[in-house]
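Case study: DDB1- and CUL4-associated factor 13.
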Amino acid sequence: MCQRVFRNFDPSLRTQEKAVEYVRALNAAKMEKIFARPFVGAMDGHIDSVSCMAKNPNHLKGIFSGSMDGDIRLWDIASRSRPDRCSCDGEMTKSSEEQGSILASGSGHCAKQADNLSVSWPPRCCTWSDSVYRWTYSCIMWYRLHQLAAYVWKNAFWAVDHQCDGNLFATAGAQVDIWDHNRSQPVNSFEWGKDTVISVRFNPGEPNVLATSANDRSIAIYDLRMSSPTTKLIMRANEDCSCYSYDARKLDEAKCVHKDHVSAVMDIDYSPTGREFVTGSYDRTIRIFQYNGGHSREIYHTKRMQRVFCVKFSCDGSYVISGSDDANLRLWKANASEQLGVV
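Here is what the predicted structure looks like once written out:
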């Protein structure tokens, strides 16, 4: 029979209670960091720097990566193997994006498509959609086992993104062009200034709204239902190694400045929950920030990992995938000390 123990919680009898609890909490946090094992594994196979990645929102295990030598590979995250790859002579792969069942990519000059998995070379940018597309410096090619069509345009494509739900996709370069699956020319074009637009992203919640960034430190918001751009912001800071969060309804000042990197931030990706995001930097580290946190909650790095060019959250938010200058993809836990089963 257990004997009941009576405790007196009178603060005057336990003068060191706060100090003891503080030491216990500090030790627990230290032990959690000491025994954390965030690194899950590496996926090697590229022979040049990994410059872009694309994930399919309908599949948890698959991810595409593109490298500077124009090689695109499909990876199985669970087995950390590559079930498919494509290659072609050409320029580097710059960016990629997926939506639906097809990958579209932009780069130097050629591409190829097999079944429902799109492969492109040397990709500069790519995206998933319900059809197969290929972006190059001055033309877009569409392949499915053999070439079906070629879309030629006058400007280089630096980035591409597809609507989360729709038939439109956007390309960025000398201007922002809106394309339809069934048209050989853009259905709409936006231009605000003469500087090159280097990135474009559709709003997942508002399919007709997209944002771009350009070489002149500007962020512009476009609405496809309007004939002209909506809002433009010129950032005061440039390559100060920080990330800035803005409220799209009020772009006068940043809602939060996320610091800690010591070199240029190369890529950023939000978690599916929208509560945190991951960044990759030239300082060879990966950091995870809360959406409203000024400093990172996690920092990942290894001795062999070089400059990080691209990062992605997995579709379930449990893992982070990074691509770096040492031609490797690495798989990390989103929560370093979390106990996870088989990937």
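For the exam, be able to explain this: The two ends are 46 Å apart (CA to CA).
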